[in-house]
């Protein structure tokens, strides 16, 4: 099977606690619930793209522990090609410690585990998987040299290259930008990459213009309740956010990126793809957890045409 969307990134087991409010440093609180949920930004984006209609392959690493097996089986159950998911012997799988409060806000601490073992050599070994892609998607939960290699290889192969710069820890290597067809940051990431504080549509446009000046072809800043702002050299378009009752924002950004990739791969134009991705992301915040919250294609179609 040739995948139309190839996602290179992390697979994590999310250890999720719900609490009335987030604790202060040094404080102990009672939580309301605890659960293990399949997550990881890469895997979430792969699941979103698959549930929303794309043929998807995942490139990444899991540990040789029970979580690793469960994460792989979870992706296979979503019809995702996992031939390029390597099991790293002697390593634990990635985990994310997540707290979600009653207002649907979350805090996340990620321990990379096997995700930190994904090397450029892994990508070279599975070059035919990349060659089959129309759309290539990366985030920043695997080593930066690997992400850099994938972006460059994607450009050489003339794929549609998408980077979701999450989680962000500082500026990106300058030479990456010329390889990016779409850079999709949220407000915080746009600020970290551009130096512009993003708290309005105007500031989002200013930040996006800096990122274009660095060399990205197109930037989509996701702005939560403010919607999304698309900026290219030719046009600026604001897309208002669909209104929903938020339960848990975990993986909303991942759902947007996966849905956008699937929509582009299916031939939708970028405006249609952004609207489609917004509906998918909005539906994801109405449900708890990372992968369990990601909607199916029919959910998005029903929402768009009630
Ligand atoms: O974006 C949400 C994801 O971030 C979670 O699933 C968690 O694993 C962390 O990677």
From TrEMBL:
Binding note for cofactor: Requires a divalent cation, most likely magnesium in vivo, as an electrophilic catalyst to aid phosphoryl group transfer. It is the chelate of the metal and the nucleotide that is the actual substrate.
Record's GO cellular component terms: cytosol
Pathway membership: Carbohydrate metabolism; D-ribose degradation; D-ribose 5-phosphate from beta-D-ribopyranose: step 2/2
Cofactor(s) required, per the database record: Mg(2+)
EC number in record: 2.7.1.15
Function (record text): Catalyzes the phosphorylation of ribose at O-5 in a reaction requiring ATP and magnesium. The resulting D-ribose-5-phosphate can then be used either for sythesis of nucleotides, histidine, and tryptophan, or as a component of the pentose phosphate pathway.
NCBIfam families: D_ribokin_bact
Subunit structure: Homodimer.
UniProt protein name: Ribokinase
Gene: rbsK
């Amino acid at each position: 099977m040739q995948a139309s969307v190839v996602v290179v990134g992390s697979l994590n087991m999310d250890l999720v606690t719900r609490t009335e409010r987030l604790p202060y440093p040094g404080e102990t609180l009672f939580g309301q619930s605890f659960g293990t949920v399949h997550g990881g930004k890469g895997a979430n984006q792969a699941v979103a793209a698959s549930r929303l209609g794309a043929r998807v392959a995942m490139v990444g690493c899991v540990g040789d522990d029970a979580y690793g097996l469960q994460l792989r089986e979870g992706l296979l159950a979503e019809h995702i090609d996992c031939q390029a998911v390597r099991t790293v012997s002697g390593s634990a799988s990635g985990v994310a410690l997540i707290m979600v409060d009653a207002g649907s806000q979350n805090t996340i601490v990620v321990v990379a585990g096997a995700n930190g073992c994904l090397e450029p050599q892994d990508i070279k070994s599975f070059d035919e998987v990349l060659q089959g892609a129309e759309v290539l998607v990366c985030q920043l939960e695997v080593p930066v040299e690997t992400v850099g290699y994938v972006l460059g290889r994607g450009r050489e192969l003339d794929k549609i290259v998408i980077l979701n710069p999450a989680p962000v820890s500082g500026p990106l290597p300058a030479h990456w930008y010329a390889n990016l067809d779409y850079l999709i940051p949220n407000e915080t990431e746009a600020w970290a990459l551009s130096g512009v504080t993003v708290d309005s549509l105007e500031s989002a446009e200013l930040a996006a213009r800096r990122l274009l000046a660095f060399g990205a072809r197109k930037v989509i800043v996701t702005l939560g309740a403010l919607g999304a702002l698309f900026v290219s050299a030719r046009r600026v378009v604001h897309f208002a956010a669909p209104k929903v009752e938020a339960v848990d924002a975990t993986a909303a950004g991942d759902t947007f990126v996966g849905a956008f990739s699937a929509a582009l791969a299916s031939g939708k134009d970028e405006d249609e793809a952004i609207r489609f991705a917004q509906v998918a992301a909005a539906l994801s915040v109405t449900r708890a957890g990372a992968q369990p919250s990601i909607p199916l294609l029919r959910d998005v179609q029903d929402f768009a045409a009630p």
